[in-house]
From TrEMBL:
One of its GO terms (biological process) is sensory perception of smell. It is found in: Secreted. It comes from Stomoxys calcitrans (Stable fly). One of its GO terms (molecular function) is odorant binding. This is Odorant binding protein. Keywords: Secreted, Signal. Pfam families: PBP_GOBP. It comes from the Eukaryota. InterPro entries: PBP/GOBP, PBP_GOBP_sf. Belongs to the PBP/GOBP family. The gene is 106080579. One of its GO terms (cellular component) is extracellular space. Residues 1-16 form the signal peptide.
Amino acid sequence: MKYFVALLVIVACVSAEEWKPKTADEIKTLRAACLQEHPLSEEQMNRMKVFDFPDEEAVRKYLMCTSEKMDVYCPHEGYHADRIAKQFKMDMVEDDVKKLAEDCISSNPKGDKANDVHVYEVHKCLMASEVGQKVKSYIKSRQEQLAKQA
């Protein structure tokens, strides 16, 4: 039975042809589910709102959960640079984003790929890159638009 479950996990992780980037609404739903599974303090939430991700277990577990639910990370396979590129390319060339993601993944080996510290380090690297700058700009712009509508 445990081999069957392991096989299902592998199949789920490598089903790349079915994967599609998540919409903003889907990401919002996934994040809410991860907050239910891995509650964060108000201070942690406030820090993350300004893109300051503290290196704390609860934050690392939350980041791992969101990465898994977005299907850009799999405990068995690790990160999927191609999916990261598709999800976060913004106005960049997808191959350039994939290269940045691959560089972050390879520069942060942690042995066990199903490790929240590894997930955190790759996330930190990506957020410090051009990809992260584009994501931050997009989120800030979206927050400003929502504030104007309110």
